[in-house]
């Protein structure tokens, strides 16, 4: 049975996310600081026990624990013992390297690891299978088929290569079974460092992990493979974290709410910023209007749409509170940018993939304004030389610009990061977004079902609240306007991008399927009001 990838109540979870290597370092610091590591394993096993019972339908049914040689398998052994003590029928399949088979069978062997101790305290049968076994034994296949719940305690996040041979076979057998599957830490086959699954991978109905979630839980494919996510605290704390590490976080409202704009009782509209949005030619004006309206609806004090002459009438017929300025030439664009009241500029939505858009981007960056570069502003750089010109200007800009590429735009703009080959397979969207942010000296919003927001200093956030129906025409233009509005009102670039992406996703969730970009425009302010009704006055 496969998990559905649903995420629930992300706001109640700790925001920080740890890779497999970072979690391994946490475990090492815990041991160095004198924490009882077997007590940690016992607590983890108890969490696995509770999560297993949550999946059980049959009264005191049969549980199959499929374990590996490491701590993940030890967690499974602790859970097996606890479940058996509660009256459940429990079987254990353990997969080991050939070199450990004899040691596992020797009851007099010293217990060098917590996992060995956990298995020594398990009083039931253990069906040991060597990694290099050619075929899965028929008895083991029968245990999989007969189980009421299967606990995947094979490898967790530490597996760094695709499962092969009998390991691949057992994963396929588990995925084909009727029993619900609980993964311990992450589904086996999912790499906790690269956040990718290069081969066979457990498709879990639920996943229980410990202390902090991992990026792999929220990035695809892991987000779909994990099923319902459960987080258990087992006795670790911030004392085991390394404060020097660049932080990756789950993009929850708690991570940016304190940075939302505040209103002064004696303030005026210019205190809330002035956003300038560049419109496209007459046949493609809608995208820029969506951005302009989003900027206004989310609190910017003023918004101006810079329109080509042939589009003035069509824009004027759709605008009320958004102001309209004629802008046909590069000189007129530069003159608009000289208005010191304008503090944020949006370039790209419906602007055209051409030299004029390139010049408009560079002029906006040189004018020392906050900039949101979206859509055509990301696709108009035709070769490496032009892209380097953009990156050079971004590095010289005092304010961090925000770039909002979807997958295709990312590949064009960051072509050198998107090349095919083995190295690409080991880099997730998180790695790519971080590299792009460092390369461009900009905040990068790498849009998708699992949008990643990355800052040049290494900070990153993974968004998990966007429903699939958010993928609709114009939604990205609305997002660009929300980001610009928050920037204009004084939010730092990374926090503004995180807030905008979260608000965007929550608005779509509230609206439910189907939606349009126009509906998003009116729903996002409602989400913003609910999020911080008191925090907006001082």
Summed over residues and divided by their number, the pLDDT gives a mean of 92
Model regions low in confidence, pLDDT < 50 over at least 5 residues = 1-9, 533-538
Report helical residue fraction.
Answer: 25-40%
Pairing-aware structural class of the strands and helices? alpha/beta
Q: Key terms for this structure?
A:
single chain; 538 residues; alpha/beta; 11-stranded mixed sheet; 7-stranded parallel sheet; 20 helices; 18 strands; elongated; disordered N terminus
List the helices and strands and how they pair.
Blueprint (H helix, E strand, L loop, with lengths): L15 E2 L2 H13 L4 H19 L6 E6 L3 H15 L3 E8 L1 H8 L8 H7 L5 E5 L7 H9 L2 E5 L11 H12 L4 E4 L21 E5 L11 H4 L2 E5 L15 E3 L23 E5 L7 H12 L4 E6 L4 H5 L6 E4 L3 H8 L6 E4 L7 H12 L3 E4 L2 H4 L4 H13 L5 E2 L3 H7 L8 H4 L3 H12 L2 E4 L5 E3 L5 E3 L12 H14 L4 H19 L5 H15 L7
Parallel strand pairs: 2-3, 2-5, 3-4, 5-6, 6-7, 7-8, 9-18, 10-11, 10-13, 11-12, 13-14, 14-15, 15-16
Antiparallel strand pairs: 1-9, 16-17, 17-18
Helix pairs in contact: 2-3, 2-5, 3-5, 9-18, 9-20, 11-12, 12-14, 18-19, 19-20
């Amino acid at each position: 049975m496969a998990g559905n990838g649903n995420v629930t109540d992300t706001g109640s979870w700790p925001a920080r996310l740890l890779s497999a290597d970072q979690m391994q370092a946490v475990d090492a610091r815990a041991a160095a600081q004198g924490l009882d590591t077997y007590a940690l394993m016992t607590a983890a096993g108890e969490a696995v026990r509770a999560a297993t019972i949550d999946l059980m339908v049959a009264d005191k049914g049969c549980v199959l624990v499929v374990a590996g040689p490491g701590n993940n398998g030890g967690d499974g052994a602790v859970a097996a013992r606890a479940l058996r003590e509660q009256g459940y029928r429990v079987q254990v399949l353990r997969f080991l390297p050939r070199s450990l088979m004899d040691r596992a069978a020797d009851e007099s062997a010293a217990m060098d690891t917590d996992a060995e101790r956990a298995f020594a305290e398990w009083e039931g049968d253990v069906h040991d299978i060597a990694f290099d076994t050619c075929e899965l034994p028929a008895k083991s296949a029968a245990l999989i088929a007969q189980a009421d719940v299967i606990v995947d305690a094979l490898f967790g996040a530490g597996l760094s290569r695709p499962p092969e041979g009998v390991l691949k076979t057992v994963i396929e057998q588990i995925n084909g079974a009727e029993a619900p599957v609980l993964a311990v830490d992450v589904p086996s086959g999912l790499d906790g460092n690269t956040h990718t699954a290069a081969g066979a991978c457990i498709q879990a109905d639920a996943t229980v992990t410990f202390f902090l979630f991992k990026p792999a839980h929220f990035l695809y494919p892991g987000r779909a493979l994990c099923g319902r996510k459960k987080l258990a605290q087992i006795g670790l704390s911030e004392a085991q974290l390394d404060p020097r590490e660049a932080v990756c976080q789950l993009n929850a409202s708690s991570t940016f709410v304190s940075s939302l704009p505040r209103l002064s009782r004696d303030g005026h509209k210019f205190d809330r910023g002035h956003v300038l949005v560049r419109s496209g030619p007459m046949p493609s004006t809608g995208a820029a209007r969506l951005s302009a309206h989003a900027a206004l609806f989310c609190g910017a004090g003023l918004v101006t749409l810079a329109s080509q002459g042939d589009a003035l009438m069509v824009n004027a017929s759709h605008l009320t509170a958004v102001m309209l300025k004629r802008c046909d030439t590069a000189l007129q664009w530069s003159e608009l940018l000289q208005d010191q009241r304008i503090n944020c500029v949006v370039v790209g939505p419906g602007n055209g993939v051409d030299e004029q858009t390139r010049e408009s981007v560079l002029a906006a960056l040189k004018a020392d304004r906050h900039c949101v570069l979206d859509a055509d502003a990301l696709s108009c750089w035709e070769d490496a030389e032009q892209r380097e010109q953009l990156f050079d200007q971004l590095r010289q800009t005092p304010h961090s610009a925000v770039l909002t590429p979807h997958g295709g735009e990312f590949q064009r703009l960051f072509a050198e990061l998107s090349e095919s080959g083995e190295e690409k397979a080991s880099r997730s969207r998180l790695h790519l977004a971080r590299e792009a942010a460092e390369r461009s000296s900009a905040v990068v919003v790498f849009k998708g079902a699992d949008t990643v927001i990355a800052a040049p200093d290494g900070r990153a956030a993974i968004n998990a609240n966007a429903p699939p129906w958010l993928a609709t025409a114009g939604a990205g233009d609305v997002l660009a306007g929300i980001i610009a509005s928050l920037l204009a009102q004084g939010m730092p670039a990374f926090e503004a991008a995180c807030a905008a992406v979260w608000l965007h996703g929550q608005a779509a969730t509230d609206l439910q399927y189907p939606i349009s970009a126009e509906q998003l425009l009116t729903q996002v302010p409602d989400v913003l009001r609910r999020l911080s009704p008191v925090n907006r006055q001082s």
